[in-house]
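Everyone, study these two lines:
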Amino acid sequence: MLVAMWMTRDPATVRPTAAIADVASEMARRRFRHVLVTDGPRATRLLGIVSLHDLARAFPVDVNPLSASGYGHGPRQPVAEIMSRNPLTVTPETPLEDAARLMLEHKFGAVPVVRDAALAGIITDSDVLRAFLEVVGVSGTREPAASAGVRLTFDVSENEDAVGFVVELARTQRMRVASVLTMQHEGKRLAVARLFGGDIDGFVDAMWLSGHRVLSVLRT
């Protein structure tokens, strides 16, 4: 998956001369946690980014920058004084996991998306979470009530084709595969499979008989 699939295109922006209090009011009204600073209302050149943390530091300690009272007591200095200048960016073609790693390593809640020096969008931690839910198959529509499901966590060998193994085993138990993910956890390679329909008990029994250690069985 690429950043372009999940980013917000044409994000809201402010000019560097905008008053800090006005920016706080706009972020509160639109429920934004970050806003990008550009060189004009239709400009594409990114100058910086402002977060709720930046606003909190700019306001008096006893004033909530996102409250109605906060607007009246907010600083009138230009937002350029508190923005993070020359922020780290990604491109629309950046793999989503690379953007997520960047946010995790630097404790960012959002990263601007730039293409050829022009602002293209913004990707946030909420976008990454939405993507994760989509990947594991629990985002959007729910399975019909009559379609029982199960999520299994089990160990796999280092070079094992976990996807192929689950698909073949699911076929023998007349089940549908929603997703199969593998990961390294505490020095072990694990797989998490979500399946629906068919013989759940038969699938779990067949998993044990195959020599795999089942760590978790969650029925849905």
About this structure: Helices lie at 20-30, 52-58, 68-73, 96-106, 125-135, 162-172, 200-209. The first strand starts at residue 8 and ends at 9.
